[in-house]
Structures are given as structure tokens and as C-alpha cells.
């Protein structure tokens, strides 16, 4: 569940060209992408600028968080500092705004209570920054495919035997016998 993060649009922002900044910190952000689960260490910090572009409110800013997930190689926890760009566009009901160039999913209507929930915008900003192949460290050695040993913690016997031998792609050929 995504906790809502509301900002209330004050009266003065309904003047064309008016602008105002908001910032805050949110707790309890979680995210699922396919089978992978990502959690954000609290707090997710955010700051936005809301600008009246004439008939609509443009919301731009950034969100930052520390993201925790499982390393794709060794399954230990991997942490990332993420920072994403927030962008939203809210039409003011009853006013004419230029939306000819926008797709339907690129803007929303400003709710009647003049509160904007930033949570979906912050989530969208962070999703784009989440690593598709998270690694605990760039040179994570992963797990031994034979015995499952975490190779960051120590080398197992199956790997030592293999890596001691010189790597020669034609080595298997010497054991082959060719029949006419
Ligand atoms: Zn790892
Ligand atoms: Zn092994």
C-alpha cells in the first residue's frame, strides 16, 4: 500500500504564473516490480515546485531514497541511493488549459478539495531509477553454481579446482578420439 502524501494548493497558486515550493519526507514506501521486491528505507525525501501555467498546475521536483533489494547474484541485500525527477500536470477544473499536445495519461484534474497526492508521482520518479540488475557490490562474486556457497565470503573447493586449471577452450578436444 502506498501511503498518500498530500500537498494542499493554497489560494494564491490559482493566480497565473504563481509559484510555490513544498518539501517533505515520507515513510513506508514499498514497491514491487515483477517478482522483485524493493523497499525504501525511511524516509523518502522530496521537494517540488508548483507553478500555475494558466489553467493548470505544473508540479516538478525530485525525490530521493535509499532502496533495499536482493542482490541478483548472491541474494544478499543490496542498497542503492536513488534520486528521481517528479513531474505532474493538473488541470484546474473550469479553466481552459492547453492540453492539445498531451496524452491522456500525462495530466490529471485538480481534485475539488485542492489537495494533490504526490505519492504516485514520487513512486513513478523512483521506479525509473531502480536498478534492473541490483548488485550488492559491482564485483559481487555471486554463488557457486555447484554447492551454493556465497563466494564473497570464501571460495569453495569446487571453484578452486576449476580456477586453478588454465582456461583453454580446446582442452576438451584432447580427450576425444576420432573414429574413421
Ligand atoms: Zn551480491
Ligand atoms: Zn562450490
Record the SSE blueprint:
Blueprint: E1 6-8, E2 19-26, E3 30-33, E4 36-52, E5 56-70, E6 77-91, E7 108-109, E8 115-117, H1 119-127, H2 157-164
Parallel strand pairs: 6-7
Antiparallel strand pairs: 1-8, 2-4, 3-4, 4-5, 5-6
What report would you give on this structure?
Strand 5 (56-70) and strand 6 (77-91) form a beta hairpin. The chain starts with 5 loop residues before the first strand and ends in a 16-residue tail after the last helix. The chain has 2 helices and 8 strands, in the order E-E-E-E-E-E-E-E-H-H. It is 9% helix and 37% strand. With 180 residues, it is mainly beta. Strands 2, 3, 4, 5, 6 and 7 form a 6-stranded mixed β-sheet that branches. A two-stranded antiparallel ribbon has the order 1-8. The site of one zinc ion has 7 residues, from helix 2. The site of one zinc ion (ZN) has 7 residues, from helix 2.
**How is the main sheet built?**
6 strands, mixed
Estimated radius of gyration:
26 Å
SSE class: mainly beta
- The low-confidence parts are none
Number of strands: 8
* SSE succession: EEEEEEEEHH
Shape: elongated
Binned, the helix content reads: under 10%
Mean pLDDT level? 86
Measured by DSSP, the beta-strand proportion falls in 35-45%
SS element count, helices: 2
User: Which small molecules are bound?
Assistant: zinc ion
Distance between the termini: 69 Å
Amino acid at each position: 500500500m502506498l501511503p498518500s502524501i498530500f500537498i494542499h494548493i493554497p489560494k494564491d497558486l490559482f493566480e497565473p504564473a504563481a509559484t510555490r515550493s513544498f518539501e517533505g519526507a515520507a515513510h513506508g514506501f514499498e514497491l514491487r516490480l515483477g517478482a522483485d521486491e524493493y523497499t525504501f528505507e525511511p524516509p523518502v525525501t522530496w521537494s517540488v515546485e508548483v507553478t500555475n501555467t494558466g489553467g493548470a498546475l505544473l508540479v516538478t521536483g525530485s525525490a530521493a531514497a535509499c532502496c533495499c533489494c536482493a542482490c541478483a547474484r548472491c541474494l544478499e541485500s543490496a542498497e542503492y541511493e536513488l534520486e528521481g525527477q517528479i513531474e505532474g500536470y493538473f488541470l484546474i477544473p473550469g479553466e481552459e488549459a492547453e492540453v492539445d499536445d498531451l496524452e491522456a495519461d500525462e495530466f490529471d484534474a485538480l481534485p475539488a478539495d485542492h489537495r494533490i497526492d504526490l505519492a504516485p508521482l514520487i513512486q513513478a520518479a523512483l521506479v525509473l531509477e531502480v536498478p534492473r540488475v541490483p548488485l550488492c557490490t559491482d564485483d559481487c562474486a555471486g554463488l557457486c553454481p555447484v554447492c551454493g556457497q556465497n563466494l564473497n565470503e570464501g571460495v569453495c573447493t569446487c571453484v578452486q579446482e576449476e580456477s586453478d586449471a588454465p582456461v583453454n577452450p580446446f582442452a576438451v578436444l584432447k580427450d576425444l578420439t576420432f573414429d574413421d
